[in-house]
Each structure stands twice: as C-alpha cells, then as structure tokens.
Amino acid sequence: xxxxxxxxxxxxxxxxxxxxxxxxxxxxxxxxxxxxxxxxxxxxxxxxxxxxxxxxxxxxxxxxxxxxxxxxxxxxxxxxxxxxxxxxxxxxxxxxxxxxxxxxxxxxxxxxxxxxxxxxxxxxxxxxxxxxxxxxxxxxxxxxxxxxxxxxxxxxxxxxxxxxxxxxxxxxxxxxxxxxxxxxxxxxxxxxxxxxxxxxxxxxxxxxxxxxxxxxxxxxxxxxxxxxxxxxxxxxxxxxxxxxxxxxxxxxxxxxxxxxxxxxxxxxxxxxxxxxxxxxxxxxxxxxxxxxxxxxxxxxxxxxxxxxxxxxxxxxxxxxxxxxxxxxxxxxxxxxxxxxxxxxxxxxxxxxxxxxxxxxxxxxxxxxxxxxxxxxxxxxxxxxxxxxxxxxxxxxxxxxxxxxxxxxxxxxxxxxxxxxxxxxxxxxxxxxxxxxxxxxxxxxxxxxxxxxxxxxxxxxxxxxxxxxxxxxxxxxxxxxxxxxxxxxxxxxxxxxxxxxxxxxxxxxxxxxxxxxxxxxxxxxxxxxxxxxxxxxxxxxxxxxxxxxxxxx
Length: 552
What we know:
alpha/beta, 4-stranded mixed sheet, 3-stranded parallel sheet, disordered N terminus
C-alpha cells in the first residue's frame, strides 16, 4: 500500500490512527502488495519455527472470536487481571515510533507517561514522529544513518523502507533463539500473539521482533443509517442500483452528497463488487496475476468514473472534515479502515446509527469478494546488544503487548484510575481532562510499536458491538486474503510505493475525467516494467504452497 495525505488516496492516519479508546491497533487493513518487511529468503523463512501460540484466557469475552478472523467482543470492561509479575525495566530504554494522534506533551511534562514509567520500573524514552508528509520514513532514515540507534525502532510494512533484510542483519538483533517455539513462553503476552501475526516479523529465516497485530479486516464503506434509510437502506443488488441510490441522495443545492471524495478508496470498494482479487490472484499454474492486470479492475475504474460523472462525490477532494460530515449526514458514506471503526463516529454524533455495507454483485451474476487486511502494522526490532539488555527489551515489549482485560493493558492505554481516567456509571473508562491532554498521542505511539490481538469494545454502545460482529460474520463469507501477505519483495520495498502512486495518479485522473480510460493500459504496462513484474517473480518464489487459487 502506498500512503498519501490526499483525500483522493489513502492516508496513513486513516489506516493506522488509533481512534477512540485504542482497543484496536488499527492497521493496514486494505493494503495490497504484501509487506515490506517479511519473509525475505523464502526457503529459510518457510523453515523457521514460529513462536508457540498460547491463547490469553485471563478474561472471557461476551462474544467469542474464531480462527477465521472474527474478533472477540466485550460489552463491559472486565475486571483486570495481572499478566506481568515484576516490572520489566532496570534502567533507561529508548525507542523510535510514530503517532497518529495529536502529539502528547514530552516525558518531563507528562504525568501519564511518568506514571507508566514508574510501573515499568525504569525510563522509557521515545522519539515520536508525527504523521505529517514523509514524517516517519524520513525520521527512520535519519536515525538509521546516524549509527546512534535507539534500543528499539518500529519497522512499518507499508512506508517504503528499502533493503529491509540487509538492514536487519547489519543493525539489529536476531531474536529467533529467544522467541522461536517454546522459548516465547517465557513472555506470555507475546505467546498470545497468533502465528499469522508472527509471520510478518520473519525475514531471512529469522525472527526480528514482536509483531503488532491489527484488525484482520479490510476497508469497508460506512454509511449514515438515517440518510440511507431514505432510499431503502445502505445496500444494493447491483452497482447501478447503488449509483441510483447515491444520485437520489445527492442534492448539491442543499450541500448534501452521497460519497466522500476519496476516489482510490471508493474504487477499492467497487472492484470488490466486480469480484477483483485482493492485490494478487493465485492462478491454477501457481503464477500470480496482479489486480491491475484484471478485467475486473478495469470495470471498477470505469464504474467509479461513472459515479464521478454523476456528481455523487463531495466536491472538495481536500476536505478534512469528512468524518464530521458523515456523522451529521451531509455526506452519506465514507470508506474506513475496518468494520470496528464505526465507533469513531460516536464522539461526533452519539445519537446517530451507522451501517456497514456488505459487498454485493456488480451485475447480479459475478460473485463479489471482500478484501481482508494485512493483519499487522509491522514489528519492532532491537538494536544489537548483550543478552541481558535483549531480555530486558523483550520483557518490556511483553508488558506493552498485554491483552485487553489486563492491568498492564489498562496502564498503557488509560493510565491511573482517578488521575488519567475515571469509571462512568456503566462501568466504562472515561479519560479525565488531563488524561485527554496527556494520553492520546503517547498511547498511539505505544500501540504502533506494540499491541495485543484486537477485540471489539464500544463502551456504552453494546448494540454497536453486536452489529459490528454480525457484519464481520457476513464479510467473512466473501473474504479473500492477499496471498502475498507475510511475503517479502525487495523490489516492492524499493519502488513499490513510487510505481503504485504513479498508476493511482493516472487512475484518479481517469475517474475525474482528466484522462481517458484507454490510458489505463499504458499506465499498467509502465507499472509492470518499472517493478511490477519483478515483484511478481519475487512473490511467486515465496508463495505459500497452500495459498488457494483465486478462481477455480
């Protein structure tokens, strides 16, 4: 996935922003092209013994998840259980990460941070990059070149960091002896991370850090229930029916529009209706075909251009208040990171309802698909050090990866009861005024570099939790996973972001009428010649032999 800050494309804040109560380390839910940091050295990586999985059972969810990806749901905050017996730190630990929320005050001026350090038993000092422009990749490159590395550095899977394998071998600690197989059981919160999550932290047959799980689901369209109810609900039997509803809801004279102007996100939803693959399709002969090369993608571009020509998109593609507009109904629908994200509208309009669109057949004949997400937001490796320091860092990440329902989770995400947060009449956490100032930016930064498996928890809105899980069950009926997830392509790491942006820029021009549909063919040809074909070769070499054929 390439990241942009334009409403016409993807935004890192949209994908990784830790909305609400940070229950979910929201991640790369609809990113394509595989990660930029996993499974280099295909043969070696295939043979590595992943950490033993031992599920966290300290608390019982109100709605259980399952192995297909359904997330566990909670209606109330459970009584917290302790998962770490002793403070993990002995001294100072430094790290590099990013925040997708408003920057918190620094350590010296932040009692929330100070109280967390007191629980950790030492000083956790972080360099935190903001989600502005090329913020994190530029910061990462500068720190890496300095040779004065912090103890930990978050490696994202989607921000174009090149030569990941050689970088890890040269600068960072191989953690395989500490984490492979039963060795991980020394760190119970890390053992509670699922095997699929760990695959993203394997490069050249070695485990380089604990992964940061995110929602396993991909992007979804969320609509304002009351608005779509006017046209029979947020559903359709065909692409044309959806467009007819969108046109009926669009009233420029009243400043009301059906869809947000994030054209690439809208295209992603439309290509699902046409049955396009999730980034790459596995063919019967075990070769790969990319989304861009398919007739379904072409059909999706044509139909999205048809929607634009009909005027159903909000006209300001640089607008920054779309979420508020969806909450108040002046924009009827928006693409969000995943189904759990409907909770983020509650802070804007607690009385409104929001619906999740289930993919439907574009023409009543083709089978629609639903693109599952990448499943992690990377991993956090440690710089090379002696064994005592490595074990201290592992103990720290074990603490910071504590599951929902633990004392450590509450300390990391909410702080101290009575100072950083209170418990409301329904038994749910609510940040105090000082907690609201001091916590969000730091909590985001902490969850970007360390996270447990995710749950659905909407304090005070139990019906939302039930609804989200019900819709997740429906989405799983159409679910396809990108077969290259957990695989590494150095070409993708080096040029994937650049060549994908080039193609997407052309696609946006086509959708908005600035270019002809015939120009897509040459844009795809350029994408292939400048790296796409080479990425295909690298992914094919690392392809999971059990990856299902996309169309049998």
